[in-house]
Amino acid sequence: MTAVQIDEHDGVTVVRMAHGKVNALDLDLLAELTAVFHEIRTDAVVLTGAGRAFSAGVDLWRLLDGGPDYVREFLPALNDAFLAVFGLGKPVVAAVNGHAIAGGAILAAACDHRVMAAGTIGVTEVRVGVPFPPTALSILAYAYGEPAARRAVLTGATMGPADALAAGYVDEVTTPEALLDTAIARARLAVPADTYRLTKAQLQAGVRERLTHERPLIDPQVLDLWLRGVEDGRIHRYMATVTGRGNAR
Asked: Which CATH number fits domain 4-187: 3.90.226.10, 3.40.50.620, 3.40.50.450, 1.25.10.10?
């Protein structure tokens, strides 16, 4: 079963994550999302989710079941997906149809414009007990601004559409019924494609330079803490608390 659905609306590709109940990020969804963004040929993109969630973030149960080998494969795939969305040289609009948590919030932040209609949004990794990779933090700082990104990461707070708009997590709020049409309209910019591509690359140049220097040093430290989170039980304890599943997998 495909993890991503693709539709075209008059020159705008709508990429819809459709993977399980809440579009949790696992290797299958990340690989397909990355491949789709590398192959887009239309002039603009809308990224959204199927069902009641945009994406609830990393599938931590899958991570626990997969163990260390899965974690070692998962983190590079997570980075690849974030950068595939962030680096596309075309207008990319997030249509946040429901919960966008942790990695889901980063995917939304990787888009050029965010329209939200329902659910909550926020980055909760610190509460889980593991750090975000520098790719995620740099995208978040670019999208939210440094002060707002710092508050978002260190508090792990989630918020609904109105508060998210006030905090700068999203750019506008609309109704669920109008969400897709609004996002498609925002993606259709009256800007020549080559001009938009170069301008976006210029704006993102600082992020790419920062990651070139930071990732070789910090990515291994992030991996070490994610592996420790699997091994010492902190991720399992968090999931048991938030889901009420106890020792269940």
From this structure: 3.90.226.10
